[in-house]
Amino acid sequence: MSEKSLVVGVVGAGPRGLAVVERLAAHAGRLAAGRAVTVHLIDPEPAGAGREWRTGQDRSLLLDTVAGRVTAFAGEGVATAGTPQRRGPGLYEWARALAGSGATGADAAEARGLGPDSYPTRALAGGYFRWVFRQVAVAAAESVALRVHATRAVALDDGPGGTQEILLAGGRRLTGLDAVVLAQGRVPVRPTAQERGYAAFAAEFGLVYLAPAHPADADLSAVAPGEPVVLRGLGLNFFDYLTLLTTGRGGRFDRDRDGRVTYRPSGREPRVLCGARRGVPYGTGDGHRNGGGGGGGKIPRVFTEELTARLRAQRDGPLDFPGSLWPLIAREMESAYYTALLPGREGPGRAPELPGLRAAAGARAGTGGGPVEAALDVLHDLRDEVRLAADHAGLDGESRRRDLDGWFTPLGTYLSLGPPARRTEELIALVHAGVVRIVGPAMQVAADRDAGMFACESPRASGSRETARVLIEGRLPGVDLRRTADPLLRHLLATGQCRPYELGPGRTGYVAGGLAVTGRPFHVVGGDGVPHPRRFAVGVPRESAHGVTAAAIRPAAGPATLTDTDAIARAVLAPAGPLPRERDDHRERRAEEARRS
């Protein structure tokens, strides 16, 4: 590392990469010790928005968080050790300013009708993140030279003297980097064996199969009006697909004087056959409002980061979810329940047994923002706290697999991370209009060779079997490093420079799919288990080691995304020591072979 300069590569220019750049700029003046700092920001998509929030996507696709609870700036809870924080408006405040500026265009038109509890479009959120990037770039100019590369990073290797080298698509190589931060969002994955089988079946019989992907990226042009379509899944992606296949094709929803929503077809819609494990869609997310009922983004009273740290320090070994974490979650839920039931009072109380939450699964549909919804919204607001408690073998492998990944996370998602209530109303209207049929719980899908069609049915609903020419997977692809289609991550894995995250050996072992990293500041762990001192990672690819990486940044709440990127920026700007091992010739040969292929 030069005493006169420091050069950093940041791969990924979406909100996470943006947060890294912002934190580097915030700390550079104090921690860089007079050295010039250059940051290379690499992403083929527009800086700030990235691919997921790109501004050109269909404006009927909504964020799953209300406008008043999204920001890209550091909150009060971010520990900055005396470094001035970067202040700025959240999405709602930015939209208000835009609405009053006299600007024209789609963003300004939407901003004029936006409230703090409104669900903005993903395109508007992208406009906000791109605006934030411009502000950060201007502010950073005082301490950081920012270089934006609108291309893809395809390889990362060690260079001379422990420096880092990034190969860009097209052949250009960035050399002499002192540190690299991987801040990719949700990267593509190669299909599973089942998905490959469906694709091959579709090709053989002239059918249409859409594998898991962002709905905004899907080509729906081959879906003909009126034909049956199997849409598997009833989560957030399902509602996006449903929107694109209905109002996206000219239909419209009307609300009558009694508040009932009806659908007016355009005649271009397909007939949608849908289902999932539970057979009913996610509960609405309308409790997550800026000032409304429910969790409201409140700071935990019991389940605090400090208490979690004490529990982990006191216990000889990993925590057990039912015995250690669930009682804390239950107390928070109970407090929210009684606070909503008896305003001005907090519920003390007795935490329910672990199976108790299962009984609440059916309660949400009938709640209108009362105590039950307030309790369930705690599951949304405690995501950072649960993540911090479980990360890095905070739970043993079996408890992580069974209790967190297998039960609590999917149930919490189902109960507290659903779509806006209007989407559920629209689904009901579509069912009444005959556009949608919910096949039933535990819907099964098969490739029926005799019929030459995809078939779906619910084993719990007699006569539910239907066939269709089109099968759409209404879910996002999972996070799995072993199946990644991202060229940079594939290169790192193939050359032994990274590894999947694993919890514990033997009987309690659990190999998850995400990128293995250390605790803060999140050094990338090599295939040999040794952390790399000059490589860091933040965001979705490390989801297994750090859950809830895609959660929105909450205003003034000190969320993990900002404290994580703050820790990374500090480590990047600190003087780095030598690599912990000599360069391995075998690994270098594998790296060269991967580059040639």
Protein architecture, described:
The two termini are 31 Å apart. The protein has three domains: 302 residues, FAD/NAD(P)-binding domain (3-Layer(bba) Sandwich); 144 residues, FAD/NAD(P)-binding domain (3-Layer(bba) Sandwich), CATH 3.50.50.60; 112 residues, no CATH class. 48% of the residues are buried. α1 runs parallel beside α4 and α8 packs across α10. About 8% of the residues have low confidence. By secondary structure, it is an alpha/beta fold. The strands form six sheets. The protein has a six-stranded mixed sheet, covered by helices on one side.
What is the overall shape?
globular
Regions with little confidence, pLDDT below 50 for 5+ residues: 287-296, 348-368, 577-594
**CATH evolutionary superfamily of the largest domain:** FAD/NAD(P)-binding domain
The total beta strand count reads 21
Taking Cα atoms only, what radius of gyration do you get, to the nearest Å? 24 Å
Class from helix and strand fractions: alpha/beta
Q: How many structurally independent domains?
A: 3
How much of the sequence lies in strands comes to 15-25%
* Largest sheet: number of strands, sense, barrel closure: 6 strands, mixed
Rounded average pLDDT: 82
CATH fold node name of the largest domain: FAD/NAD(P)-binding domain
Helical residues, percent: 25-40%
